[in-house]
Amino acid sequence: MSSYATERPASAAPAPAATGWIGFVVFGGLILILSGGFQVIEGLTALLRDEVLLVTSEALLIELSYTTWGWIHLVIGLVAVAAGCGVLAGLLWARVAGVVIVFLASLVHIVFLPAAPVWGTLVIAMDVLVIYALCAHGRDVRSD
Question: How far separated are the first and last CA of the chain, in Å rounded?
């Protein structure tokens, strides 16, 4: 039986003790995945079925084509899903990417706020919770 599989590298810092906040960070990771999935659906809808989007350019703060809007949502959504999975795995890059993506997603929803005020407000509120969870307590889910 080999002992090298259970030994920790000398340079690795010990994982912090689990706190009650770990559930909040897991919630943040799951919301990242869920929000990213919604972003992907929004992006694919804008790319493939733009006739179901009934928003005029006057209702938006920035005038973009549905194709551009679709690609923005698709890219943000895919990165958010990847970051959410990484957060659940305890990866530092995923926490950083998650904060950046959630911030960008909030800006995108602010632009789209006049078209869907209730949905946009709810998404922005969830984004603020995710940013707090990842920044304040993200290391609670750090991988060894």
Answer: 22
